[in-house]
Amino acid sequence: MERLATLRKKVFESDNRACFIERERALSELALEFDGYTGEDRYARILSELLDRVSTPLEPEDIFAGRAVEALPEEGMSVPSFLLCSTGHMSFNYEKLLKLGLRGMVDGICRSAKALGDEESLSFARNAKTVADAVERFAARYAQSARLAGKEEMAKALSAVPMGPAYDFYSALQSVWLMHFIASALVGSRDYAFGRFDQFMLPFFQADLARGKTEEELTVLLAGFFIKTNEICGRTTHNYMSKPVLCQASKQYVNIGGKSPNVLSRAVLDAACINSMAQPQIVVLLSPGADEGFTDKVFESLSVLTDKMNIYNYGQIVSAAVKRGIPLEVAEDFTYSACCTYDLNWHSYRMEYYVPVLAIFDEALHAGEFGCLAELLSCFEQKMRAHLSDFVDGRKQGYGGDTARREYVLDGIMLSDSAANCRYPCQCSSKYNVLNLFFPGIATLGDSLYVLQKLVFEEKRMSYSAFVEMLKADFAGNDGMLARIGSMTFFGNDGEADEYAAMAGRLLLDVAEGLDTPENFFVMPGFYSLERENTGCGDVGALPNGKKAGMPFSENQSPTYGADKNGITALLKSVSKLPFDRAFGGGLNLTFSKAVSPEILRSLVAAYFDLGGQHVGVTVLDKDTLRDAMAHPEKYQSLTVRLYGFSEYFVSLPPWQQLAVLNRTEY
User: Fold this and answer.
1) pLDDT tens across 222-278, in order?
2) Which end of the chain has fewer CB atoms < 10 Å from its terminal CB, N or C?
3) Which string of b and e fits 167-206 if b means at least 16 CB within 10 Å?
4) Is the dihedral of CA 560, 380, 356, 525 positive or negative?
5) Using CA atoms, how far apart are residues 233 and 246, in angstroms rounded to an integer?
6) In the beta sheet, which residues pair with residue 586?
7) What is the CA 353 to chain-centroid distance, rounded?
8) Residues 6 or more apart whose Cβ sits within 8 Å of residue 68
9) What residues form DSSP beta bridges with 343?
10) What is the CA radius of gyration of the chain?
């Protein structure tokens, strides 16, 4: 435990202005050496050279090898370098890595390339071998560093993994970490995830228990592994005072549970509670009837971890995926790899798009004179369909281009469909290419439809054209109408307005499901904003629900700030009416002003999931504490809050985002 405390302390003492200096120096040199070189092995050779040039540092307290040397950027240095980079946002096939080793995986690629016989496949195999050879040399040098430092268990493991199969729980963790480190910190990208961690790591955990290891010993080891995820990303946010590394603010998800939670699932929760750090995010895929003991453990842990855990309605999401044409065995293997973003574990290559829903709705509002809500909705639907059709047409070839095809060799090895087809992930050659369409502002949209229906089309307080003119004037001179709108009971109170949000949700999902996509494309829509409710509001004028031009709209699946006034039960009933049986992502953040017992949390979430709810995240905060943290950030370096689908350090948030957290309704 003392080693864990020291490693944790080092994370908080690290300098968020520092870059991975050896990576940057090496890539600066390699940019000159490869200037003008366009060979098909360009990416593989650059990565190979980089792995040969960086050192293999170890701290005395290190439990696992794989850390970067950090320093402030040198004068004139442009960091981070994009000579190497990836899209990230994916889950590697670590189960296969642990069974076959990287060498075995590349041998399989070579066999596939030979069977396929075309030059592109053979080129892919050559590049895969170049990368694997470089990883082998890197691991061997790390083994030597460990040996010199007297870390014999580490040295033994690195002499075997990741090139060969793992042989115990420690070697399996070391294998996974070294590959994760290379992908995240050296190649560089955010949000690589660990997939269904409690499934592929279970055999090694159980084998060590059978050899006489205790659960406590292995849980502490796991806590040491989890601390590593905090070392590579810093304590900054992606949108404010960024750390100059490509994996800065990375959200690294560990998925557990599903239909077969196990002893390791519980150990993951215990390890996360030991550290109580922002990373990794624990994603619980909950089937309440699958294992009562595990379900109890989830809510015990949630009362401790709060903002550092997501809980999803596992059975509902599997059912929705099967309806979209995903085979059951693949649908059951889904994961979340960043924020509230759905993917199919290592089966898929995932893309995402935040649809400017309210900007398109704003355009539809001003498109003509409408005599009823159905006419307006028809116009809105046509504009939404045209917008999304254009977007999808541009994504049918993935990210395409010669540069993109070169850039993701390591990812190509670790995503099984890409490896089997000897094609790079960005070419969308996988059997399952997931396109997440995120629809922000669902509550604002629903409330706006409700206002129009009641005040314009039913009560006829104003003509439609006069109402639109009022919007153009940003409600100026219309204080009476603005007050009437403000007196209405909106989404979040288990009332009539909820049906309009649900109606809007169904319309958006209808459009998403009707898009023309190739057979291997799966459009997976959801109600998620990330921070678009603030950063995207400048493109949206005044709306019928009383939102003025340029002001924020509703976050994720939540009501507009302050609109939910009838308590948490009413809130959960309202949100459960959204069409989650056809949706795959989003987020409902519940904010409590004080600690809540595990029993109450379980009752709330179980009832919500029974009603059809999809996701819950929890924050426990005291607004006075947050205000003090804004005034005295130096006192609150470890204070975390739930943002949209993940945890952030409160003092690292931009001021507008700190205020957004403060404005949430407390229960």
Assistant:
1) 999 999 999 999 998 888 888 999 999 999 999 999 999 999 999 999 999 999 999
2) N
3) bbbbbbbbbbbbbbbbbbbbbbbbbbbbbbbbbbbbbbbe
4) positive
5) 9
6) 527
7) 13
8) 20, 22, 23, 54, 57, 181, 185, 186, 232, 245
9) 335
10) 25
Claim: this prediction has a pTM higher than 0.90: yes
Contact 377, 389 (CB under 8 A): no
DSSP code string of 578-645 = S-GGG---B--EEEESS---HHHHHHHHHHHHHHT--EEEEEE--HHHHHHHHH-GGG-TT-EEE-SS
3-state class (DSSP) for residue 521: strand
Q: Are 113 and 422 in contact (CB under 8 A)?
A: yes
The number of angstroms, rounded, from the C-alpha of 598 to the middle of its chain's C-alpha atoms is 26
Amino acid 306 reads: T
How many residues are given for the chain? 667
Identify whether the C-beta of residue 334 lies closer than 8 Å to the C-beta of residue 283.
Answer: no
CA 114 to chain centre: 36
Contact assessment for residue 370 and residue 467, using Cβ atoms and an 8 Å cutoff: no
Q: Please, are residues 162 and 136 in contact by the beta-carbon 8 Å criterion?
A: no
pLDDT number for residue 405:
61
**Percent of the chain residues topping a pLDDT of 90:** 81
Q: Please answer whether residues 272 and 301 qualify as being in contact, where contact means their C-beta atoms are separated by less than 8 angstroms.
A: yes
Which residues, at least 6 apart from 621, have a Cβ–Cβ distance to it below 8 Å? 591, 592, 593, 641, 661, 666
**Residue 620 CB neighbours (<10 A):** 17
**What's 188's DSSP letter?**
I
Token representation of residue 444? 């604002």
* 294 contacts: CB under 8 Å, gap ≥ 6: 257, 261, 265, 266
Full 3-state SS string of 288-343: CCCCHHHHHHHHHHHHHHHHHEEEEEHHHHHHHHHHCCCCHHHHCCCEEEECCEEE
pLDDT at 665 over 80: no
> 391 — phi, psi (to 5°)?
-65, -45
Q: What is the dihedral of CA 426, 428, 434, 439, to 10 degrees?
A: 70
Q: How far apart are CA 23 and CA 131, in angstroms?
A: 16
Coil/strand/helix, residue 349:
strand
Tokens at residue 516, please? 């023309």
Q: Which of 421, 347, 371, 392 is nearest to 116 (CA)?
A: 421
pLDDT classification of 621: cutoffs 50, 70, 90: confident
pLDDT in tens, 559-595: 998 899 999 999 999 999 999 999 998 889 888 888 8
Band of residue 661 on the pLDDT scale cut at 50, 70, 90: confident
Using omega within 30 degrees of 0 as the cis cutoff, is the peptide bond preceding 57 cis? no
Mean pLDDT value across residues 18-45:
96
How far, in whole angstroms, is CA 614 from its chain's centroid? 16
Integer CA distances (angstroms), 217 to 115, 147, 212, 266, 275, in order: 46, 23, 10, 14, 15
- pLDDT of 667: 79
Q: How far apart are CA 101 and CA 96, in angstroms?
A: 7
